[in-house]
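Students often ask why we bother encoding 3D structure as a string. The short answer is that it lets us treat folding as translation between two languages. Here is a chain of 420 residues written in the first language.
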Amino acid sequence: MRPLALVLLILAVILGVGSAQAKGESGLARLNLDQSRLELQGRDRGRPRPIDLTLSLSQPVPYRVMLIDGPPRLVVDFQEVDFAGTRTTDLPGADAMPGLRWGPFRPGWSRLVLDLGSTYALSTASMDATRAQGGALIRIRLDPVAAKDFRPRSGAAFSALWDLPQPAEVPPIAGRGARGDGARKLTVTLDPGHGGFDPGAQADGATEAVLTLVFARQLAEKLTRAGAEVTLTRRKDSFVPLEQRMTLARTSGADIFISIHADALPEADRLLGARGATIYLWDEKADDRAARELAMRHDRADLLAGIDLRGIDDQVATVMMDMARTDTQPRARKLAEAMAQRMGDNGIGMHKRPVQGAAFSVLKSPDFPSVLLELGFLTDPLDRANLTDPAWRTRAADAAAAAIMKWARDDAAAAALLRR
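And here it is in the second language, the structure alphabet:
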């Protein structure tokens, strides 16, 4: 079957709104989980299988469907569905996919994002608005295709159509990316992971987006008291694309970038010892299974982060970025090792491999040292107890702040030696 166009803009006549408002009820559509489901068709032979997504709504709404990459995802926008009170884990079949999230996207719109784990084509997307009592049924069918046949939306046209950020053109900032000499304040950008319609990992009532924001605020206070200047990529429970997070770091003149997470892993990986805090560095060749799982969960942005390389050949761009990392990557490793050492010494339980490499896009930028602090795993009971304990978070923030400031002093001293 020849695939349909990958972007569908479907405007439906909204039925039943007037009668609902006459009764004083919300005019927004609601999701009926009892009649919604996500199904993988055929037998599991270790290969991607066709996906059928059925969403039962209380009333028809305008909606649009698209596939995007990095990693492959299905995105469905609604105008508008109220997802309040519904959990993605309650959708039948959701546990068969790498990830699913939904919630408010921007004023007047809601969004559903389904991580696919492989490349697909959109075969059908339809709404049945003839059901009793003014309801509607959205049916979406995805069929697996080879990577060469995957046709995601991308580029400036995609950004303009779907209100997503275009690659940033950031003016140079004096001293940005240069090694400090100790004469000026250290500038740190803290990046609390996830947020908004993307809550991140969830377990026993705790959500990654909330916990990382709470910890980032604590760490920011510690660093500020120690004499650093600190910016946060988000200060509330809001969605910030990866590309915008890196732009915020650059425009603030960041000397270092620290992304903060508290994730989850499948049971098989938990049995292998996925417990304790870990600091990650950029490594596109990392082949650890747990690291790959986490990279898929973290990299939910609309565009890959990184310096603006539009118009530059991919091979040349790779060489440029590798050259820039000859300075920033060793410094990032020293920062990661300093944090791991100080946190361990301060009684913070660390992973058996406290410093690791992973291909997290948020670490991809080569123009300043970047690390990702994985505070622990919400899927581990001990880690979850620590993450939700204010006293533990205070100790972790104290240790991380002390390590960062010591690293800055050592880095400035090393820079002075290089200049001689």
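Translate back mentally: Confidence is low (pLDDT under 50) at residues 1-26, 155-178, 268-272, 299-317. Keep this in mind for the problem set.
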